[in-house]
Structure formats: structure tokens, C-alpha cells
Amino acid sequence: MRNLQSVAKALSNPVRMQIFEYLLERRVANKSDLLAETGLERASLNHHLRSLAEAGLVVSVDVTIDKVRNSLCFLSASVSLESRSELSSQGVRALLGSEVESDVDHTEIEERAQRAIGKGELARDDAKAILRTLFEHRGRGTKNTCTSCGRIKRMSDLALCDNCLRPACQSCRQKVDKTEGGAETICDRCMRELFGS
Fold this sequence. Notes:
Arc Repressor Mutant, subunit A; 4-stranded mixed beta sheet; 8 helices; 22% strand; globular
């Protein structure tokens, strides 16, 4: 992290503080997520992200998803409030490469994520955040397969399981309340493995 003065200056702006808090909560966000969250114009958002990047708070990685250039934004590891492995540009690139087409099977990327988690190269929550962001921004009209029932569904009808990171359709997933608050999406396949039901 750069010096305290540049960090304080970057976070003194309420919009930049809003972006920082959003990234702290989401871990990874596409620029279009940030545009929707803040209501800013693209040029204004870029200005605020540049200020946060110059202060060493935010990192952006460009990834082409379905031939559209996307920027995935995330906090620098040095500003995390938790002890976790660093989420770096190289980690995102290793997982996604530079281009993801709509016909790329989600399973291939999910398997890469599971390997990276297993090797300790990527924290589980970071992998979930990257995959969720990628999944939400792949072509919504494109189709993929529910890993529980095997039916081909539109991307907009699928959601990622918080346990296995695989897509599941509405009839093959359920919300489970966590003990510390909030809810998780769990696919039927994981429900059977976890609870035997």
C-alpha cells in the first residue's frame, strides 16, 4: 500500500469510499456492476478507479467476455481486513485467460478454480467472486447446462452454487440460511453430499 496520505486522499471522496466498500463486500466486480451501483458515467467511474489504483487500493484486470472487453476490479490484498492469500492480476489471468467465449463450458473454468484453491494459489471466496462475476457477465442469452439435472438452460435461469461453484437451475437449487446471517445458494447435488437428503 502506498503512503497513508495518498490513501486518505483517495478515500476522502464519498464516491470512492462507496466503490471501496462495494469491492470490500463483493471482492470482485465488473465495471458495469460499479456503474450500476454508483450511477456514474463511465468516464467519471474511470477517474475514481484511477485514483484508487494510484493509492494502491484497487487493481483492474481486462478480460474479454463474449467479445466484449470487461474490467474486473478488486481490492489490493494489502487493504484486506482479513488474512487471505493475495488476489493478483496473475491469479485472475491463470483462471480466465484473456478471453472467455459463451461456448466455453463453465465446468472447465470451475475445475481450474478448484485446482487453484487446492494448491493454495487462490482463496475460495476470491474464486467464488471471480466465477460469479464472470458468470453474471457472460452472454445472458447464451445457454449452459445445470450440473444437477443436466438440462440446458439460459444463463439467466442459472445461479452458481456457493459450495461447488457450479451452475444450477431454479428447480435444482435452494437457499440455505447461514448461522452468522445471510443465505447461501446450494445445489441439490451438494445438498445430498452435505446432508444426505
